[in-house]
Amino acid sequence: MNRKYLKASLIAIAVVAAFVILHYGCQESKNLSAGDEAGRVYVAPGTYDDFYLFTSGGFSGQIGVYGLPSGRLFRVIPVFSQDPEKAWGYSEESKPMFMTSYGFVPWDDAHHPKLSQTDGIADGRWIFINGNNTPRIARVDLSTFTTAEIIEIPNSGGNHGSPFLTENTEYVVASTRFSVPIPNKDVPINSYKENFKGTISFVKVAKDGAMNVEFQILVPGFDYDLASAGKGPSHGWAFFTSYNTEQANTLLEVNASQNDKDFIAAVNWKKAEEYIKAGKFKTFNSTYFRNYYDEKKHMGISEKKSEVRVLIPSECPGLIYYLPTPKSPHGVDVDPTGEYIAAGGKLASIIVVHSFEKMLKAIENKEFDTTIDGIPVLKYESVIGGEVKNPGLGPLHTEFDGNGYGYTSSFISSEIVKWKIGTWEVVDRIPAYYSIGHLCVPGGDTRKPWGKYVIALNKITKDRYLPTGPELTQSAQLIDITGDKMKLLLDFPTIGEPHYAQAIPADILMKNSKKIYPIEENQNPYGIKAEKDSRVERDGNVVHVYMSQIRTHFAPDNIEGIKVGDVVYFHVTNLEQDWDIPHGFAVKGLQNSELLIMPGATETVVWTPQNEGVYPFYCTDFCSALHQEMQGYIRVSPRGSNVQISYGTGK
Ligand code: K7E
Ligand code: CUA
To answer: Which ligand is nearest to the CA of 585?
Structure first.
């Protein structure tokens, strides 16, 4: 072999090697095993964290995903609010998820994440969360950590008491916080007592997760606040707190705090199913939307619905009863045995615990005080199971540890109070910093709590964090409950305002976590399966760009023939089939948001160029050592120019 040839070959090999290292270098470092020559140590998932914690974002409308016990934030799942990071609500595919009977509503106030259950135990398939403002329930798929469905709740003034679910995820429930005229109509507000009503909704969940508003119950015009479904012996029932039984429509702070006791509504939903089957419902014409994300099409689909079945309590004896409960109750929580129903009476000096068994007896013996709109009010003494004395001020929510203890958050005295089921004595208390709302024990709302921790979800942090201007962070606190005394382990800030949270052992979710979307299953009508299918097509002033991405280039990456006034659809398919290799897409001056496309997925963004010129586009996610090279140009010519569409990769 001549020396010149050998030298050229060696250079060629070196160039190829450098290219390979640059090209795949980043991915390699993500796949570290045991440790590498540089001394970097691989840490197996679960080394630091053995639980996932899902917190509601409150007014942020999203779900935060944290590890426990570290308190590290892993991800924010966009649910009800637009999120340019992931093009949620900006991409053409995700926009239909925000459709409602009020139009496109790109935000909400999300309070209660709730994990799907099988046999009363969290199973890790989905997490549901309520939209409080524009009444909706979302279902998030926990194999992809993305929002799979959002259904609107008709005939509701605000969906606060939601989405609490039954033992086998047969139903997620929803109750209206604000009573309104139903169906809604133009009436004087001071005709509240005669015109305003509440609704309690049962949303059926199919095997594949699809939701449907199965039926609603028309109830007196109180404020229905929170809910909890029965379990074990009380499976088949669901419980809803209500306040403002005074039916005030102004200055509720005074006017809705008159009655000594308000009610927990106990609904026999098995009975409701019988009434539905027997045709004892009224059909209301109510418009609402069901939006779901088709995982194969990579596309949100909006369905408009127009009817809902409504049960009227006075025509359905045995459907619903009121349990008198002091005073303006907020939370309601059923213990793991299914026998006890604890109520957080915000203005009460005790925690009231109703007995399910006594409730059934009282119903049988007709121990009623009175009847309201066909709903019997049971006698307080007949249903009471116990009263926890000295529970702190402003009790709100209770979770259970599975060892016979309840943990109640007290907002005003800012503490968690631990009490014993049966003896009703307070056995421990720990301060929360500060103003605790909900609290969460892993599985603490299920038949078999995992226990170990209680997480305080706090509204106010005052001096515990560095100041960040007029608003300080909200926070969670991790508290050890394995001993007799609760022990504070950690504070960590949260995304938005945490209301409720749910925790689940990591291994239940990890084994189902999806790594890629198989490209051969991609049915997006604008998706392409290979680079050779990439193209640009003009249809009047609409231009479709079918674009592919793979480390580390776009195809096409040079596009000409676009004109001012065109509406350009970039349909971008990420052809990667490797875990954790999303690519981004953005063009200069893009008016909505970048795209972040998962391996095997297609997403679309619309661009309307305003001025002639040459516009760069590029990948927004540092996907490999040659990420910066992942770029291209689009030439935009004046209106009426005769530059023809052309495109390519310059090969
Ligand atoms: Cu108590 Cu909206 Cu569940 Cu907040 S609610 S704290
Ligand atoms: Cu693709 Cu950076």
So the answer is: 2
Scanning 150-278, the segments in alpha helix (DSSP H) are 192-195, 252-255, 269-277
Residues in the chain predicted with pLDDT less than 70, given as ranges, are 1-35, 651
- Residue 45's pLDDT is what? 73
Residue nearest to atom 1 of ligand 2 (CA): 583
As a whole number of angstroms, the distance between CA 501 and CA 111 comes to 9
Q: Do the beta carbons of residue 63 and residue 494 sit within 8 Å? A: no
- Distance CA(418)–CA(484), nearest Å, equals 10
Q: Which ligand places an atom closest to the C-alpha of 497?
A: 1
Mean pLDDT for all residues in the chain: 94
Helix locations, 457-587, DSSP H: 506-510
In three-state secondary structure terms, 466 is coil
pTM passes above 0.70: yes
In the reported structure, the alpha carbon of residue 570 is separated from the centroid of ligand 1 by a whole-number distance in angstroms of: 41
In whole angstroms, give the CA distance from residue 109 to residue 115: 18
Closest ligand relative to 26 C-alpha: 2
**76 has which bridge partners?**
64
Q: What is the chain's Cα-based Rg? A: 28
- The answer to whether the CB of 346 is under 6 A from ligand 1 is no
In the structure, which protein residues have their CB atom closer than 6 angstroms to any atom of ligand 2? 552, 583, 619, 621-623, 627, 630
Dist. CA 475 → ligand 1 center (Å): 14
Q: Is 396 in the pocket of ligand 1 (CB under 6 A)?
A: yes
Atom of ligand 2 nearest to the CA of 552: 1
Q: Which residues pair with 478 in a beta bridge?
A: 455, 490
Burial-class residue 274 by CB neighbours within 10 Å (0-12, 13-18, 19+): middle
For ligand 2, the distance from its centroid to the CA atom of residue 576, given in whole angstroms, is: 11
Q: For the segment 215-266, what is each residue's pLDDT rounded down to a tens digit?
A: 999 999 999 999 999 999 999 999 999 999 999 999 999 999 999 999 999 9
Distance from CA of residue 191 to its chain's centroid?
36
Q: Which ligand is nearest to the CA of 496?
A: 1
Task: Tell how far the Cα of 632 is from the centroid of ligand 2, in angstroms.
Answer: 12
- Distance between CA atoms of residues 283 and 245, nearest Å: 27
The first and second tokens of residue 374, run together, are 């066909």
State yes or no: cis peptide before 327, omega within 30 of 0: yes
Specify the residue with its C-alpha closest to ligand 1, atom 4: 499
Q: For the segment 7-52, what is each residue's pLDDT rounded down to a tens digit?
A: 555 555 555 555 544 454 444 444 445 567 777 777 777 778 999 9
